[in-house]
Amino acid sequence: MGDFNLALVIVAIVVCIIVFIFNVYLLVNYQHPDDVNQAYFPKFVVVLGLSVAAISILMLPADVANRHACRHAIYNGACNLTLPMKDLWLAVYILDAILVFFVIPFAMFYYEGDQDK
């Protein structure tokens, strides 16, 4: 069953890349025409925030698939090869808190204060 876990890791990486590319597409497609070549830090924060939000939602099916990895295991050590979902959940929640309380407000005030008058 080690192949299942490798496939789950590959699927998780591909989904993260697709989410990131989709969020960059959304940002580029729906940005204001005046913001085309400026404010790169707030744009990075927007893409990062949207990506973390989408990945935190998409982690639930990954957690379910990870728990089912060792249900039909042929050998006893199959559960040792699963993804460390507790650590991943903790990392996503900590990243959410850092983004919400520190990074996003700073980026918002930086963007609003950087306007030319």
Key terms:
single chain; 3 helices; mainly alpha; elongated; 117 residues
* Overall form: elongated
Head-to-tail CA distance between termini: 62 Å
Number of strands: 0
What is the average of the pLDDT values? 85
The helix-strand sequence is HHH
β-sheet strand percentage: under 5%
Q: DSSP helix count?
A: 3
Helical percentage:
over 70%
The figure for the number of domains is 1
How would a textbook summarize the main sheet?
none
Name the poorly predicted regions. Answer: none
- Which secondary-structure class do the elements indicate? mainly alpha
C-alpha-based Rg, rounded: 19 Å
Transmembrane segments: 6-28, 40-60, 90-111
Keywords: Membrane, Transmembrane, Transmembrane helix
Organism: Trifolium pratense
GO cellular component, one term: membrane
Q: What's the gist of this structure?
A:
The chain is built from three helices and no strands.
What does this protein structure show overall?
It is found in: Membrane. This is LIMR family protein at5g01460-like protein. Pfam families: LMBR1. It is a multi-pass membrane protein. The structure is a single chain. By secondary structure, the chain is mostly helical. It has one domain (2-113). It is built from 3 helices and no strands. The protein has helices at 2-30, 40-67, 85-113. The N and C termini lie far apart (62 Å). 3% of the residues are buried. The model has no long low-confidence stretch (mean pLDDT 85).
